[in-house]
Amino acid sequence: MSDTTIKQNSFRAWLLAARPKTLSGAAVPVLIGLSLAYTDASYYGDDIFSWTAAILCILFALVMQIDANFVNDFFDYARGNDDSATRLGPLRACTQGWVSIETMKRAIATTTCGACVIGLPLVYYGGLEMILIGILCVVFCFLYTTHLSYIGMGDLLVLLFFGIVPVCITYYVQLHTVTFQVFVASVACGLVIDALLIVNNYRDRDNDRRDGKMTLVIHIGEKATEYLYLGIGIAACLMGSVFWMNAHVLAFILPFIYLLLHVFTWLKMQHIHHGKQLNECLGETARNILIYGLTVSVGLLLL
Questions:
Q1: Nearest-angstrom CA–CA distance, 53 and 302
Q2: Which of 238, 56, 192, 208 is closest to 130 using CA atoms?
Q3: 141 FRET partner, CA 20 to 30 A, in 36, 112, 151, 159?
Q4: pTM of the complete model beyond 0.90
């Protein structure tokens, strides 16, 4: 049933469809990649860091995330997986009738093309290989919702496209290389952001099982998922020791603020266990991701 308080195709409808709370997951990897590049740029010359390229990387990541949200909204509706009566997560625009189907199709085409237009100038800074990276981002944006999330590949894609790819490529665009420190930081970032998918799939496990969506949560079970959620936060902070080894002590120490909050969210997740109340854990996890990105970046830039 449509929420009549939200006018179809209105600004508010599109704002809800864009899912602004998810944008931290897109911004944090780029923020970390830029902080690493800015810190290391002094070894190559103070004028090597490009603010234009930095802005393009941020805009590309944000528009691609909105595009992915639109794709997810549309195809979940088309598959019949978004049932407003049984849905536990935030309501979706197409299912609620906030955005018409034909308009959503045009929006997907617009955001996909928009991301490509924004990303194309990065060829000037990073070389022709940026075209391949852009194509992969677009292709897997669609494959995630339409196929790969149904066979338990979602967590791997998060590690790749919210960790390794954005952190390393953002750094590469600036300095034309990728160091061991950058790679480890990218994996840690991917783990932190995967916590968002884990708690989302943990909440939806019964509905996903019914719909034949075999997420990692269903494969490994509830208790193992709870400890996986805790473990990836611990692992990410311990991997930050690579910063310490490269004389960025604060970039290792400050993220333990994130870890403390992550543990509190994990305890709440275990207590709630089922139902819509797990959306509290989802919101807290998004907040924790942002805090992780800020603490790592501040730690890199200060020392």
A1: 22
A2: 56
A3: 36
A4: yes
Q: What is the pLDDT of residues 217-236, one digit of tens each?
A: 999 999 999 999 999 999 99
User: What span, in angstroms and rounded, lies between the C-alpha atoms of 163 and 71?
Assistant: 21
CA distances in angstroms from 240 to 136, 235, 259, 299, listed in the order given: 28, 9, 12, 11
Alpha carbons within 13 A on the beta-carbon side of 192: 39
- State pLDDT tens for residues 152-191: 899 999 999 999 999 999 999 999 999 999 999 999 999 9
Q: Which residues contact 80 (CB under 8 A, 6 or more apart)?
A: none
Per DSSP, the three-state class of 255 is coil
Nearest-angstrom CA–CA distance, 189 and 239: 10
- pLDDT tens, 54-98? 999 999 999 999 999 999 889 888 877 666 656 666 778 888 888
Question: By C-alpha distance, which of 197, 171, 190 is closest to 285?
Answer: 197
CB-count exposure of residue 5 (10 Å: 0-12, 13-18, 19+): exposed
- Residue among 270, 274, 184, 196 nearest 233 (CA): 196
Closest CA to 239 of 285, 192, 197: 192
DSSP state of 150: G
